[in-house]
Amino acid sequence: MRMLNRWVFVLLVIMLPVLVCVTGCQDEQEPELVMATDATFPPYEYYSGEEIVGIDVDVVAEIGRRNGMRTRVENMKFESVIAAVQSGKVSLAAAGITVSEDRKKQVNFTRPYATAEQVIIVPQHSDIAEPSQLAGKKIGVQSGTTGDLYVAQNIQEPERFANGALAVAALVAGKVDVVVLDNLPAEKHVANNAQLKILPTPLTSEQYAIAVNKNQPQLLAMLNATLEAMEKDGTLARIAESHLNSPVATASLPAAEPGIWSSFHNNFIKNNRWKYLLDGLIVTIEISAAAALIGIFLGGLIGIIRSTADQTGRFRVLNLLCRLYLTVVRGTPVVVQLLIIYFVIFGSVEVSKVLVAIVAFGLNSAAYVAEIIRSGIMSVDKGQMEAGRSLGLSYGFTMRSIIMPQAFKNVLPALGNEFIVLLKETSICGYIALVDLTKGGDIILSQTYDAFLPLLAVALIYLSMVVVLSHLLKKLELRLKKNER
Ligand code: GLN
Fold it and tell me: Distance between CA atoms of 433 and 38, rounded to whole angstroms?
């Protein structure tokens, strides 16, 4: 029992920063407008160097300025921006969002600030010239957009990509025949790709507006009033103008087959793009290491409770709770758990996303570690416990100094395996707008349209980490074996 208390204590110490941040990180001093967006949508939002810029960013910044509020951008997948508004994670979403009846059921929209169309991008020499020729062709879209919806409802199931740039990259690579996209982003992509063009007939005409939580009527009124003023005094037009003419440095595809060096330069050196990988790598390591710690402590605790219950019949209720926990965690995908923890559990609390990811992956990993530890404890011959007890040692002491060291040795390979899985599993962090290693590579890809080098680099970095980790584990295993003799 004493050992259990110590484990609980250690776990609490690890979790303390999380708890402190959950309760104390809210900055209630200065009002802040937090804007959800997906910075793969030039000229509305895109990366310029390491900064997110664009029409939407400027519009929201100006609204903030006129109302004495700071503004901050939260970059995430387009599919998450409405959910972010609904859950209160952000104050508003400005992401070239088309007003639609379905979306109006979820959020309130401001007055429109721009009009748009869904257009068709094809290779220069395509034989497709009309929307009517799309049936049966491979149509690329950005998942969850009005273009996606239109194609799915009126033509056929499209090929869905995470963002427009990836869809265009697939078009350039010949993986799809056409791409359906909003007109201004389409123009930006085409302007940088001599082998693409836009068909003259659009598929739809739409209006963009800012999305706000339904429980925020005052915010909506404020946004509407400011947008109206900005339209009247020409600010809206001026902002749009400034981004229409500025070339988007991000979207460029060399016309000719690039040499490997120039390709390398474009993907990693130009605009310091390697920084996306480095920053992402740090986030990946941070999350994996902290989650592994939670996994080990919480998983160890659960494993001990479960096997003690199995062997001695103690901890009935605790054991039941642990089993429930294992069933739920192992029965649902980790990406769903991550989203639930971010949007629902920490829905209305300001908390660092790295912490959210650490908690999510830590809780997830604990379930698997628990079963590994339990199998380790069960694998130690029952006679050892009996021997310890008959020598007059307590259950806890026997467990701690006789059973656990052997169990640990037995399960080390399985534990190592779990941490390797954990490290790679963190690659879904992009879902909650975290720039981890995978997302870093993704950003480079969306800027250079080159799938090969960024993905290769990301894969090599993961591989090296796994190789180092395996090596360290092997060493530890050898050392433990030596001590045995
Ligand atoms: N206008 C489209 C939509 O609302 C696409 C927006 C975007 O991709 N950022 O669905």
Answer: 9
Distance 200 CA to ligand 1 centre (A): 20
Kindly give, in sequence order, each residue whose CB lies less than 8 Å from that of residue 215, ignoring residues fewer than 6 positions away: none
| CA of 44, closest atom in ligand 1 | 9
463 by Cβ neighbours in 10 Å (0-12 / 13-18 / 19+) ranks as exposed
Residue 77 falls in which region: left (phi positive, over 0), alpha (psi -120 to 50) or beta: beta
CA angle 199, 201, 202 (to 5 degrees): 100
Query: 329, 363 in Cβ contact below 8 A?
Result: yes
Ligand 1 surroundings by CB, under 6 angstroms? 38, 41, 78, 95-98, 142, 145-146, 182
Residue 103 alpha carbon, nearest atom of ligand 1 = 4
Best mutation site among 146, 206, 208 for ligand 1 pocket (most ligand atoms within 8 Å of CB): 146
169-184: pLDDT as tens digits: 889 888 899 999 999 9
Q: What are phi and psi of 153, to 5 degrees?
A: -85, -30
Q: How far apart are CA 182 and CA 147, in angstroms?
A: 7
CA distance 171 to 182: 15
Residue 121 bridge partners (DSSP)? 179, 198
Helix (H) or strand (E) holding 283: helix 274-312
Taking only the tens place, the pLDDT of each residue in 255-284 is 445 678 888 998 899 888 899 999 999 999
How far does the centroid of ligand 1 lie from the alpha carbon of residue 98, in Å? 6
Answer for the pair 76, 39: CB distance below 8 angstroms, yes or no: no
Q: What contacts 177, CB < 8 A, 6 or more positions away? A: 122, 126, 128, 137, 138, 139, 171
Q: Is the entire prediction scored with pTM above 0.90?
A: no
